[in-house]
Amino acid sequence: MRFVIQRVTESSVKVDGKVIGQIGKGFMVLIGVADSDTKEIADKMVKKMTGLRIFEDEEGKNLSLDAVGGELLLISQFTLYANCKKGNRPSFVEAGKPDMAEELYEYIISKCKEQIPVVERGMFGADMKVTLVNDGP
C-alpha cells in the first residue's frame, strides 16, 4: 500500500466537471493498493498518516492533523504501482485487482472517518481531476 500525502491549504476533486470532494487545510492523499495488501496494513497506514506531526506550531512542525482541525481528501490512484523499469510502457501487474482495491479504499475511508471529522473522497475508477494548493515543500 502506498500513500502520497500532500499537506494542502485546499484541494478538490471533480468528476465530469462536478466537484465531488473538497477540503480546506489538511491532507490530500493519493492511495495505491497492491494485491498483497490487507486491512491490517491499511490500519497501520491510517494510524501513521493521521499521526504525522507536520503542521506548524510556534516552534516549527509538531502538530498532527487532528490537532489543527485538518481535513482529508482521499483519492484512489492505481498508477502508484506503475512499474517503469522496462521500456516506455508502464506495467500495472502489482496494482490490486479492482474489486479488492476498492474494498480496501472504502475501508480506509471508514477508518479515517472514525478519527477525522471531515473526510472527503474521490470516486474509485473514475476519470478524476484533482486540484490542490500545496502547503510547504
Short descriptors:
137 residues; alpha/beta; 21% helix
How would you explain this protein's 3D organization?
The structure is a single chain. This protein has 137 residues and is α/β, with parallel strands linked by helices. Helices cover 21% and strands 36% of the residues. It contains 2 helices and 8 strands; from the N terminus they run E-E-E-H-E-E-E-H-E-E. It has helices at residues 39-51, 98-113; strands spanning 2-15, 18-23, 26-32, 55-57, 60-63, 71-76, 119-121, 128-134. Strands 1, 2, 3, 6, 7 and 8 form a 6-stranded mixed sheet that branches. A two-stranded antiparallel sheet has the order 4-5. The mean pLDDT is 94.
SSE blueprint and pairings:
Blueprint lengths: L1 E14 L2 E6 L2 E7 L6 H13 L3 E3 L2 E4 L7 E6 L21 H16 L5 E3 L6 E7 L3
Parallel strand pairs: 3-6, 6-7
Antiparallel strand pairs: 1-2, 1-3, 1-8, 4-5
Helix pairs in contact: 1-2
Low-confidence stretches: none
Q: Sketch the major β-sheet.
A: 6 strands, mixed
Overall number of strands: 8
The DSSP helix count reads 2
β-strand amount: 35-45%
Structure classification: alpha/beta
SSE sequence, one letter per element? EEEHEEEHEE
Mean of residue pLDDT values:
94
Percent helix, as a range, is 10-25%
- What is the CA-atom radius of gyration, in angstroms? 15 Å
What separation lies between the terminal Cα atoms? 23 Å
Q: Judging from the principal axes of the Cα atoms, what is the shape?
A: globular
